[in-house]
Amino acid sequence: MLPIVGDVVIIKDNLPRGVWKLGRLVQLIHSNDGEIRSAKVVLSSRKVISRPLNLLYPLEIEEKTKVDEENTCQSESAETRPVRKSAEKARRKIKDFYGE
Fold first, then answer.
1. In which domain of life is the source organism classified (predicted)?
2. How far is 53 from 26, CA to CA, in rounded Å?
3. Considering its fold, how many domains does the chain have in total?
4. Which residues make Cβ contacts (< 8 Å) with residue 28, sequence separation at least 6?
């Protein structure tokens, strides 16, 4: 899997795995033979660091697009749960009782 600028990665460190930092690739650095050997990563503190690719573990996260967000909103609004008859009857009795 080739790294792409914008990928979210976990940065390996000499600490327990649970405290490794997250970052986002901002630049890929090519070596003299033309292969990608390292990358510049921006951390949450906006600090940019350079790390070799063997210390970067990509996460399987994709950016959401506007089309995806529109589709989820439409599907949620179109899908409604059916109302039980006993629930409707109970609501009517409550309204009648309180005179609403």
1. Eukaryota
2. 13
3. 2
4. 3, 5, 36, 38, 39
Q: From CA 21, how far away is CA 17, in angstroms rounded?
A: 9
Q: What is the CATH number of the domain that holds 31?
A: 2.30.30
pLDDT at residue number 8: 93
Is position 88 within any domain? yes
**Residue type at 76?**
E
Domain range enclosing 72: 66-98
- pTM exceeds cut of 0.90: no
Clarify whether residues 20 and 53 are in a common domain: yes
**What number of other Cβ atoms are within 10 A of residue 59's Cβ?**
10
Q: What mean pLDDT, rounded, does the chain reach?
A: 86
Kindly state the greatest CA–CA separation across the chain: 83
Identity of the residue numbered 43? L
